[in-house]
Design goal:
about 325 residues, 14 helices, eight-stranded mixed beta sheet, 8 strands, single chain, globular, alpha/beta, Rossmann fold
Amino acid sequence: MSSISLTMRRIFISGALAVTILGDAFGAEAGPWQNWETQLHVGDPLVGRIWSTRDQQFVDPYMLADDLAEARFVLFGETHDNADHHRLQAWLIEQIATKRKPAVVMEMISRDQSQALQNYLAGSNPDPKGLGAAIDWAGRGWPDWSIYQPIAEAVLPADLLLLPGDPSRGELETVRTGGLKALEVAERDRLALTEPLPTALSEALSRELGESHCDLMQEETLASMTQVQRYRDAELANALLNADAGHGVILIAGNGHVRSDRGVPWYLARQAPDPGVTIVMLLEIEKNALSVDDLVPTSPDEAPVADFFWITPRAEREDPCEQLRRHLGK
């Protein structure tokens, strides 16, 4: 890496071939973006490219990794069932871990699983493959552990601290049934939940949750879901602060949680002013996208909600709305 200057690394080179050449130039193994597991629209010219909202240009993966190594909090957004999103996250974690040793917090692991997680990691030579079974991953409703395993394969050998991010099931149920007002006032204050979201953000959150559930949710259910989402975002922010031992923290979570306008960063800024956050969203390509502007999610004031957007192929999946209709008996 030292034989190639930083200036050369910041030169913009167009197309997927560029990152392949860069990978070879650094003497690195082939990156996940050079051998996709997901295949829908894999040939789209935007696939594999990383858009920097700061620089207003595409950047290469190594430049992204360099930037992330300097951030206190790195938030990785994902589509949960896209295997390539987890492979890219794992690659970035490996790159960051060569320069510092951040903790890694996962939305998918809750406080209920803390003891099982600690017990497994404290064992002799814990195996990434066995981690899912050890914490009852299959019983939590997430996609198969095998597609998340690359994250563990990056975290464990680097001796990074792996921590839960989500509240317990009981805590979530309290908010689901009673709303945020069911929490003690001191708890709401601690999590920055006493301050309401601005109206435009609150309406956008409700609308997004409704659309993501195919507009099949009743209004009362949707209102409860927005309360739970806010609670989870606030707890994830608090988990990052608690995990930071001076080497920074990486968050693995869904794209909706990491968005800058109303997700975890909104609560981080209120729980710890000027926290130092960099957000990377992994986005699936859309069939009719003509430019990055067709893909990048924005806030109500039309500002991009992440610092970097890495575009990937789409995972093949059943129509989620049809699945939900069957689940709801509709």
